[in-house]
Structures are given as structure tokens and as C-alpha cells.
Amino acid sequence: MNNNHQKYVRSNEPIVWSLFGAGGMVSAFFLPAVILVILLVSLGLLDVNLLSYERVQLLYQSLIGKILLITVISLSTWHGMHRIYHGLFDLGQRTGRTMTFYLCYGFALLVTIVGTVICFS
Amino acid sequence: MSEPALSGQSSKCPSSKRKPYTPEHSNTWWLKNPAYRFYMMREGSSVLVVYFSLLLLKGLFAVSQGEAAYNAWLGMLSQPLVIVLNIIALLAVMLHTSTWFKLAPKTMRIEIGNFVPSATFTTAVLWVKWFVITLLILGFAVLF
What we know:
Chain A is an all-alpha fold. Chain A has helices at 13-42, 53-61, 63-90, 97-120. In chain A, helix 3 (63-90) packs antiparallel against helix 4 (97-120). By secondary structure, chain B is mainly α.
């Protein structure tokens, strides 16, 4: 029914849910191997030179490397902050949800911006 | 009449007083059932994911700042606390991956022509892709 007195308020949920979904895929596929490499090197089971400055620089200087790093870091953070935002509701937070929304996703946005600036400035 | 005809009515305001149902909300509702506990554990994996992403961001910043800064970040990775957190993060991320792959096919309808894969089939395909990507990353790290 077309009610001219009621304003249809659109939710922000689809935007953050899409980022959550993308982050979920990226973190599911890429994070296990990355964590494993870092763990094996830091435990000495893999040669520490595999993560030497020269080798990581190659990744960091290349465009594909930058894009990969930004994508993994940023999208995983959006994924995590979405779960944290809704998780806080599950843990009982009922008031101040809007503030929590902006804090959680603002943090994810900040991580995205900081990562992009690091890579592309 | 002195007594209310319906149980929800009080004698003070006989025609309108009612006793609405207010369900109990406990912040520990999720402790009471294994399925709820598993759900909270799955959602809790997100904290470790954010932690590790921030660790990577710190490393990214270190790489941009030169060799000394990067080696300092490498040194931090060997701290016992960081190693413990990373082990927990690896377990958390594997929980995320396995639950994600089980759930993802249920959220979408896939039809490739006449072929409609079952949820189990799609999950298996996701795991195969995961295996290939993991091998690629490990191989790239070790061999390249």
C-alpha cells in the first residue's frame, strides 16, 4: 500500500553483508595458508629467509602483490567486524547499536584506507 | 462484579489491565545448548581473524618502512604470546573455513544448465579449490 506518510528507511545491512561475504571467502581460502607459513617460519620449521625483507619486498612492490595484500587484510577485517557487530548483540547489547555499527564498520573502513595508503602512496 | 472474569484483568482497572508476556533474556543464553555454544565459537573466530589481519597490516606497514622495521616485525612474530595467538588463529580460521564451506552452498541456488549440484557436492568443490590455493601459496612461499 502506498502510504505517503511513512518513510521507507533502507537498511545498511546489504552493504556490510556483501563485504562480510567477500571477506568470508577470502579469509577461508587465503588465511589458513598464510597463517601456516608465518607460524612455520616463526617456529623455525621453515627457513626464516623465506620471509626475508628482499622476498617480501618483491611481493610488496608488484601491483598484483599490493592488490592481494590489501584484499586479504581489508576484506578479512570487514568479515570479522560484521561478525563482531552482530556478536555483540548476541552477547546482550541492546542499546547504542548505531554507535556500535559506526565503530565496528568505521574500524574496518579505517583498516581499508590505511592499507591502501600504505600500498599506494 | 467484584472478581475479574478473565485472569488478566485486575480489579483496579477491570477492562484494560493485562499481563503482557516478557520473555527472559539472558546474556548467557548460548551456554545452555551445544548448538548455541558451537555457534558462538564460530562467530568468535572472527576476533582471531581481525587480530591476524591487523598483524598482517602491521607487517605491511613495516615492509613500507624499510628493512629494520620489517625485521622488527619478524622478530615480534617469534614472541611466545604471538605464536600462541597465531596457533589459536589457525584453528579459528579452519573452523571458519569448514563452517563457511558447509553453509555457502545453502545460501545460493546453483544450476549449471540441467546440472544441479547438491550441497555436499558444492562443499567438496570448495574444499578442492581451497586445497589447490593452499598448495599454491605454500609452494610459492617455499619454492619461488
